[in-house]
Amino acid sequence: MATVNMDRLLQACVEQDASDIHITVGKPPVFRVHGRLRSLETKVIEPEDAVGLMKSITPDHNQQELQEEGGTDFGFAFGEAARFRVAVMKQKGCVGMVLRLIPNTLLTFEQIGLPKLAGALCRRPRGLFLVTGPTGSGKTTTLASMVNYINESMDRHILTIEDPIEYYHSHKKSIINQREVGIDVPSFAEALRRVLRQDPDVILVGELRDLETIEAAVRAAETGHLVFSTLHTTSASGTISRIIDVFPTNQQEQIRIQLAGNMIAVLAQALCPLASGKGRVAAYEFMVVTPAIANLIRENKTYRIDSSIQTGKKLGMQLLDEHLWNLYDQGRITLEEMIDKARQPGALHDKARAKLLTLKGGGKKKGLKSAAEKEFDDMGDILRS
Question: How many Cβ atoms are within 10 Å of 99's Cβ, its own excluded?
């Protein structure tokens, strides 16, 4: 039986516009295409196949880390076609891999649907700008677009700290230096300790992973730098609460004051497959830290941030559920996708059902429930159970 060839897999991934390749023992290779998993019509991966595929692309020091720690991450270039971010792991005593395709083309704000206000915020001389969302929601792509916007339009020294480096940036109007954790520097915290001596204007921290990294990122914003980073939170108010909760109780008042004075925006996003089955679209929650929101952060009233976002629409702010509803109302995403990504699924379900009943009215025959109404009611029962 023919062996599975890594180069062919990578080439097929690029050609089919897949976002991920999953390699696991007991199944053929699986691609994620437009958000859906699809098995390839090829041989089932055996343990020796998985090891061979892993060794064909994994550097020696990462193979050693796999043996010692049970997992490793790295990035590599597939010729000129694309870059991949790779996670290798052990499972049931065998090797498994997930490869994420990182396109070579950097997208504009318009292409990824970012609010126009994001460009203005990228021109701010200092502050903390967080892009949040679950794994696979496109945070890295959004940050790369922001860095590229600054790189093309301003003369800045941009310094990134990533694990691993995903998008490679070339020098344009700005100077850009990219440091990879584990290769160029041992940790995020160590990189941030030294970053202020490297004359940066803009600092990108791949992820706020721990207390020490958060403290350093906030300090960098406080001392006159524009800092971008990510968190795995699903809302703007949840992001503020998550950061504060990382700190010991006796430091929480201080970090609230620091965030109120230095945070400029939170962009929480979710990536949704299109109803057409081809492509995906990002839904955004966007919070700009106005004086009113800064005051809510300072006074520990984050539960009122959502209402401030609603009243800040003229500034370009919006809640995630509002954007999800707009995408559903335009027919771009399905009901199930909207409900799955919503912060308040019950409220959106009821809104969608009310729309259905309005469309059904107007003199049409009433009586037995339509199939669509029954589907809505069944989903509502699940949400309320």
Answer: 27
Strand boundaries in the chain, DSSP class E: 18-23, 30-33, 36-39, 71-78, 82-91, 94-102, 127-132, 157-162, 175-180, 202-205, 226-231, 263-273, 280-288
φ/ψ (deg, to 5) at 136: 80, 15
Beta strands in 292-345 (DSSP E): none
- Cβ neighbours around 294 below 10 Å, total: 17
The pLDDT profile of the chain, 385 residues, written as one tens digit per residue, is: 346 789 999 999 999 989 999 999 999 999 999 888 999 999 999 999 999 999 999 999 999 999 999 999 999 888 887 889 999 999 999 999 999 998 878 889 999 888 888 999 999 999 999 999 998 899 999 999 999 999 999 999 999 999 888 899 999 999 999 999 988 999 888 999 899 899 999 999 999 989 999 999 999 999 999 999 999 999 999 999 999 999 999 999 999 999 999 999 999 999 999 999 888 899 999 999 999 999 999 999 999 999 999 999 988 899 999 999 999 999 999 999 999 999 999 999 989 988 888 877 644 445 445 666 666 676 666 666 5
Residue type, 263: M
Q: How far apart are CA 8 and CA 16, in angstroms?
A: 12
